[in-house]
Specification:
Two copies of one chain form a homodimer.
Chain A lengths: L2 H15 L10 H8 L3 H14 L2 E5 L2 E4 L4 H25 L2 H17 L3 H19 L2 H20 L4 H19 L3 H28 L5
Antiparallel strand pairs in A: 1-2
Helix pairs in contact in A: 1-3, 2-3, 4-6, 4-7, 4-8, 4-9, 5-6, 5-8, 6-8, 8-9
Chain A binds a DNA duplex through helix 3.
DNA sequence: CAGTGCTTTTGTGTATACATGAAGGGCGGC
DNA sequence: GCCGCCCTTCATGTATACACAAAAGCACTG
């Protein structure tokens, strides 16, 4: 693997994990030395992170990990709503109904059995991949990939409670059913509802975390 | 200005102008020599172009200018529709009505006087800037900027006729009026109509250009 | 003592040298 | 004569050296 890829993935993971918190300064020489690569591939990694919006050039000389506050999350979800509603509509038109019927059944089963976090996240990831595949639009997929990159960090900031997770499974089931039924309106509206609930939960969790900053 | 910026802008302009046609191979040493910069800033420029989607890595070793065909344009407009409808809705909620009333009046005047191409494109650019400003969402604005970058090339491929241009002014006037009236539904639907008409015109022009490939 | 200007230092921007790997051509064998 | 292997070459990936600019610190002056 290329050194620039390693640097990118490492930094990406560290930013998503919170090991590199918002505001952390990323000096080229410093990070290059730490990651064991030279400045050239590290610069490329920083450029990619900047294109993703995960780091920003605070001043011409200093690159920092971008901040994430409630307003950012609202903006992200505005963007996400526009894209995912469109994606849901397109998938309802183009997707293989059988594939989404199968996904819907899996969501239903997961909801009943109440499985763990990792099973749920894995299922979500497969659902997202199927959506991307069905939509078959590189512009949309690329933008959705960027959003998901940011969402990893947002989820970490606002640790979702099991109750919300369970509700989310049901919402996904409905979206998958709608796509399988080729009902574009329902798919879009169910997506809207899902994102509304997700945002509400995240903002509530964030506000809660602010009042009692412990438990880190 | 930085050498990497110069390289980026030059290459961007040449791709948008068609001087670098789709499929053109961009070797690092070759382009670096041609543009009078070294490989390091040129690589950065290529990376930015790749992030924009204007060049693609055809194979691990060769970077080419991305192709634009009718399917690409349809995909671009699907994406654009999702974003601009959302932007129109948000602008209708958040924009300063007076600003868009003024823009709407300018569109009306332009429509009456039948001014030239450059005046129209300039007005559109100001409208887009006002929209970006009103929406106040970096994710949306960033995605819209990417779209506009691609649109320059699309417009060049499908030279729009004066008739379509004139109709487009009227469609923009309606969108601006809707935003000024804070009518989100009308703004979104007028945007949808506008993009539908624009896409139809572009695809027709493209099909026409294919049957008579002269007039280049 | 404070303010200003100079100097030093540090970090980025750029150029170039080196390593590595793939692709193409040529030569040899079958 | 054709196929396959090896060698050469050239492209990218990486490392590093150099240049420049900005910021910080110190010293000198008012």
């Amino acid at each position: 693997m290329r050194a620039s890829d390693r640097a990118y993935r490492t930094l990406l993971g560290e930013i998503q994990d919170g090991q590199l918190p918002a505001g952390a300064v990323l000096g080229e020489v410093e990070q290059a030395a730490r990651l064991g690569v030279s400045r050239t591939p590290l610069r490329e990694a920083l450029a990619r992170l900047a294109a993703d919006g995960l780091v920003v050039q605070q001043s011409p000389r200093v690159t920092v990990v971008s901040d994430v506050d409630a307003d950012d999350i609202r903006a992200l979800f505005e963007f996400r709503r526009a894209l995912e509603e469109a994606a849901a509509r397109l998938a309802a038109t183009r997707a293989d109904p059988a594939e989404f019927a199968e996904l819907a059944a899996e969501f239903d089963r997961t909801s009943l059995r109440g499985e763990g976090r990792e099973h749920y996240y894995d299922l979500i990831a497969r659902f997202d991949a199927a959506l991307d595949d069905a939509v078959d639009n590189v512009y949309l997929s690329s933008a959705l990939r960027t959003i998901r990159t940011h969402l990893v960090r947002v989820r970490r900031l606002a640790r979702e409670n099991p109750q919300r997770l369970s509700a989310s499974v049901g919402e996904h089931a409905l979206i998958a059913h709608a796509i399988a039924a080729q009902d574009a309106d329902l798919a879009a509206h169910a997506t809207h509802v899902h994102l509304h609930n997700a945002l509400t939960s995240i903002l509530a969790s964030l506000a809660e975390a602010r009042t009692e900053p412990g438990a880190a």
